[in-house]
Amino acid sequence: MSINQLKALSGEEKKFFDANGYLLVRGVLNKEEIEDIKDHFTKLHAKGEIPGCFKAATPEEAGGDILKQYPRMMHPHKVDEKAKNYMLHSEVMNVLHDIFEEEALAAQSMFYFKPPGARGQALHQDNFFLKVEPGTCVAAWMAIDDADEENGGLVIVPETNDAELQCAKPSGRKDIFAYAMEVEVPEGAQPMPVNMKAGDVLFFNGNLIHGSYPNESKDRFRRALIGHYCGSSTLKIGNHYRPLYMADGTVVDRELNQDAGPCGGEFIEMGAH
User: Fold this and answer.
1) Preceding peptide of 193 cis, ω within 30°
2) Which pLDDT tens digit goes with each residue over 175-221?
3) What is this structure's pTM?
4) CATH for 163
């Protein structure tokens, strides 16, 4: 793709993403959008349950696990028009167009509250679960609160965008979600925190190794709206990520990839990025 065909990125930003597997774009969401998202998802959570999306436990049912009281919302775009509109945010879709070098298709949305005391997310690779073929998926991680090492911000391993997909192994850690299963960091690579301000969006390759810290703050939520996307030339994708959506909301589909999910087997619910 020539620099004249880029919709949102500069040539240098495109080169950076291709080389490192991630790109932090500042201020994609404005203050009004951030407050709207906070308010809207707080109201959705107050319902207690939306079948197929989330079910919040009472404090008694949670047994001290705050993530059970504030579970992630899975595929809210399938049950809520506003969630779908934010998944298809025009600036996000334009950046994705430049990354994929073709039109992007939305495959998944998730919303995380990550309240104080919540565990982190084990190191993993998103395309192990989506199994986009050919190529890989790309995540757009939209910060709704400031996110840093104290309140459970993201950690990435730069330049692992070309790494082979790994089956996670037991880590023995108790401060992470998702069965304490992690992928291994390649020799010579180093995890790196990504500190973000509310409204920033981190785009990263589906093979990039990443996870998050536990939220060790006393009173700071670390809310995030996350979308996963693939290019329009995608032929296969896992069943949990169908159908797909064009930027204008048109529904399309692709062939089912039977290998989607951990180790080609049972789908394991991952925890909070």
Assistant:
1) no
2) 555 555 789 999 999 999 999 999 999 999 999 999 999 999 999 99
3) 0.93
4) 2.60.120.620
